[in-house]
Every structure is written in structure tokens, then in C-alpha cells.
Amino acid sequence: MEYKQLVAQALHEVLKDQLELNEISHLLEKPKMAEHGDLAFPAFQLAKILRKSPAQIAADLENKVSSPIIEKAESVGPYLNFFLKKDQVSRQILNKILEEKDDYGSSDMGKGQNVPIDMSSPNIAKPMSMGHLRSTVIGNALSNILRKMGYNPIRINYLGDWGTQFGKLISAYKKWGNEEEVRANPIKELLRLYVTFHEEAEKHPELEDEGRAWFKKLEDGNEEALALWNWFRKESLAEFQKVYDRLNINFDSYNGEAFYNDKMDSVVSLLDNKNLLKLNQGAHIVDLEKYDLNPALIKKTDGATLYITRDLAAALYRKDTYNFSQALYVVGQEQANHFKQLKAVLSEMGYDWAENIHHIPFGLITKDGKKLSTRKGKVVLLEEVLNEASKLALNQIEAKNPNLDDKEVVAEQVGVGAVIFHDLKNDRLNNFDFTIEEVVQFEGETGPYVQYTRARALSILKKAEKSTFSSSENYSLRDDYSWEVLKLIQEFPDTLHRAYRQYEPSIIAKHAIHLAQAFNKFYANIRVLDEHAEKEARLALVFAVTELLKQDLTILGVESPDQM
Ligand code: ARG
């Protein structure tokens, strides 16, 4: 059991008549400074019940609370600070993680529950943007967190593979494109055609009509149009797949916008049957005034359906197919309104599960504080970012460890891992600047730093010729450096739970950084390999750190090279 719970129980023995056990455990906090002990109990709430000053209450409690894991309880003002018996607690924690291994921190709270996660969802025939990268890695980390909590996450890549842009693209391809070039460099070439179309259309507006006509043909199932669309989709997806492969990310479904083509009519008639559609200047809308939202535009005057109509169809389909307990949409903050509307329309339709739909927004990646723009061909190609990161990692490895085996493989794990980690270490809603040189650093709060720390810990075990550990009564540690590491190990299950509740992978990334930092301090101050009564326990601690850093990194979708 976690030590917080044990201390809560000890307090509860004394405070049975005043507070519930879980109230006590909620009140227990982690002191900011080590000299205030390991846990602090604030007496303010008791003061109201007992009509005494908090300081008096804390002082009174000092000698009354006892437990085998409590070394001493000391009152400081309104707080009762607990110091734990390090040797006892360390033995418990180390044995627990050594026994549970990869399962350490897992729970079954989500057992049997499906959770579709709408993630990545780039647009066909356009480059994958940094925003799509964010959605991909955040979605992946959330799905790993959910899995640890026992849920069954379903990763859905809701590809943007339908829309008027395909009409323009077909028209542009027929005018200025050729097969070899698309095959050789699909996304670049399709983007070029798309940009050319827009440039030309400014001079010759009649091109727009041509584009529209091609889209109409596509919608009507014209064979040539469909074949071209299919081909563009296939080529783009293959290109995206290269990035997904490098990120080590896969999907359970690629049902994109086009998948819902034959499901749109039924959504519109469903809305109609429920009397929710209103005619507004020829367009069909759902009024959302009572939600303080703009009306949802369901069908345009020309009969074309819209983004939200498709998302309605998709939500209904997902509910039907997965009977989800919650559905997540990892999509940029700029679409917040869209998801509010989506939920509101579903509520209007009478679906109480609308409240289980959660938009998980995130901030922008910027360059020198400014938004990266996709227009004017100024795109940042994700593949090039990953190439560059990998190259920088290789340079560092050449400098640090020139004789390393499989340098290229490790450099890829470090470079790509650095990009992912950098994305995930910030609170997801924050905007952040992206400078590749900063991202791929072996020092500071970076992915490579965490990976490097783990590789170093492994090399210590190698020197000690120790690679497996089983439970033992000897794993008692008493020094403060070990203690800081142990506390972080023991916090992990709680941390994971918090990351789940807040849908916030950065909580895991911060745990990894703190654990790596605490470990490095420990290693700088404690001579692990020296003969000492605690050597066994120290090595077990090193091992536990390698295991837990790997867990943190794995959850984030970052690899853990054993050497680097
Ligand atoms: N393809 C869209 C874009 O790039 C994102 C789709 C998000 N998912 C959704 N269900 N609307 O903006």
C-alpha cells in the first residue's frame, strides 16, 4: 500500500470521530521542502470542527499518531509534518516495483470500456503539419495512459480525405500534372498542383467552376474522378505512413471523412425528424442559441454537407460501433468551437452520451513566438524535422560514444524521441517554440537527457554484473539521496492517475525528468559500486530507476536505447 494511505490510516485512528479516511488522505500533502518531512497534514479543517486553533491541534496530535512506517510527527504552525522510516518504506517500494515490473502503476479502473481517440487526422494531398504531429503524439501518449488504466483505447485516424479541394486537385492534375512526378514525390507534387491551382484561379476565376465541376463528378461516382482521388489518397497515406513508422505509431482505424459519404443522408434526415433543422437563407442549420453558440451549419444551399455534419455521422457511428464510455478528440485549440457545437447538436438530438465526448485541445508550435504558417509554400516538412533531429543526435553520439554499436539506429531513437518528448513535456495547452538544436540536447529537460540517464544507470548495473533482482528483505536505504528517488518511484501510480484525469501527458514527462534528475544527484553523491551494507539495496534502486524511466518513456512513445 502507498505510504500516504498508511499515514492517513494512522491519522484516522486518532481522528475517527472528526474526519473520514478519504478526507484525511485528500488533505495530506507533499511538503515543498525536504526539511518539512515527507507528508504534511494541515489542521485548518479540524480547527472548524474542534473549535481550536490549527496550531494547537497540530501540536496536540504530535505524540498521538503512530504507525510502523512513521519515524516521527512534528508540528510546525498549523501543519503536522510526518517523517517516514526510510528503511522500511524503501524496502516496501523496491520490492513492489521489482515484483510488479511493467505492471507497476497499472490499474483496472477502465476495464471493459472502449475509448475511441480521434488523433492525427491530417489532410490528404497536403503535408502533415506540426499541429498534426502534436495530435499524433499526444493521442498516442493518451492511448498508452488509458491502456495502463485498464481502458481499451481505439486509435482513429480521421483522415481529411474528402472535400471540394479534391475537385481542384483533379482539375490541376489534368492540366499541369503527370504521373511520374506524383509517384516520385506525392505530397510535394500534390501541394504544388494545389498551390498552382490557386495562383491561376486568381487570374482565371473560371477555374473555380472547373474545380467544382470535378468535385461534383467525384461525388456522383464518376470513374475517372474516383480513380484519381483513390490514387492521391493512397500516395499521400503512404507518405504519412513513413512518418508514423518513424514515430512508431499505429492506428486501429483509418476511417476518414470519405468513409462517411454514405452516412450523411441519414444524419440529415435524423435531424429533420427530430425537428431540429431550420432553413436560413436556403441553408439548413441547427439553432444553438440556448448554448450560447453560433448555429451549426448542416447543409449548404447547394446541398453540400459540412465538416460538422460529417463529425455528427462519425460520432453516431463510433457510438454504435464501440459503445464507448468516453470519446476523445485530440485536435487543436482553434477548433474548440466546432466541438462545442458538435456536443450541443448531439445533446439536442437527445443523446445523453454527448457529455462523454471530450475535445482534448492543444496549443500551437511556434517559431520565434510566431505561428508556423502552411501557406505560401512555407511548410515545415515533418520528415525533414525528423531527419535533422536524427542527424543532430548522431553528431552527439559521435562525440560522446564513437564506438557505440548500431549508431544510426540509436541516433534515430534519440532524435525522434527528442522531438516527441519536447512536444509532450509542455502542458498541452501551452504554445511553445521549436528550435531543433534545443530539442536534441543531452542536458536540460529533454528526452535525450532521460534516455541518457537510463543508459548510464544500466551501465552501472553492468559494471556490478547484476541484471536481475528478486524480492529481498535487504532493500533498506536510509540516505536522503536515495529517498528523493524512492519518493518519485512511489508516486508513480498516483502520477499516472493524475495524467489520466487531466488528459495530460506532460505529467508523465515531468515525472521522467524529475526521476532522472533525482537519480543523477543520487549517483553523484552515493558510491553505488563501493562495498557497503547497502550495496545490494542501492543496486536494486538503480535497477528500479531503469525500469521506471523506461515505463515513462514508453508511455510517451519514446524509445529507450540501452546504450547511447
Ligand atoms: N483534418 C482536420 C484538420 O486537419 C482535423 C480533424 C479532426 N477530427 C475531427 N473529428 N474533426 O483540421
Describe the structure.
This protein is of the alpha/beta class and 564 residues long. The protein has a domain at 3-84: Gyrase A, domain 2. The chain contains 21 helices and 13 strands. It has helices at residues 3-15, 21-27, 44-50, 54-61, 86-100, 130-148, 164-176, 179-184, 186-203, 206-219, 223-247, 264-273, 307-322, 336-348, 382-400, 407-425, 436-439, 447-463, 480-501, 506-525, 535-556, and strands spanning 39-42, 70-76, 79-84, 114-118, 152-156, 277-280, 283-286, 296-299, 327-330, 357-360, 365-367, 370-371, 432-433. The strands form 4 sheets. It has a 4-stranded parallel β-sheet, with helices on both faces. It has a 3-stranded antiparallel β-sheet with strand order 1-3-2. Helix 14 (336-348) links the parallel strand 9 and strand 10. The model has no long low-confidence stretch (mean pLDDT 93). It binds arginine. Arginine (ARG) binds at residues 118, 121, 123, 158, 160, 311, 329, 331. Its EC number is 6.1.1.19.
Brief characterization of the structure:
GO terms for molecular function: arginine-tRNA ligase activity; ATP binding. The protein has 564 residues and is α/β, with parallel strands linked by helices. Helix content is 54%, strand content 10%.
CATH class of the domain at 3-84: Alpha Beta
Structural class: alpha/beta
Shape: globular
Provide the residue-averaged pLDDT: 93
Strand order in the largest sheet: 5-4-9-10
CATH topology of the domain at 3-84: Gyrase A, domain 2
Ions and ligands: arginine
Total of helices = 21
Helix fraction bin: 40-55%
CATH architecture call of the domain at 3-84: 2-Layer Sandwich
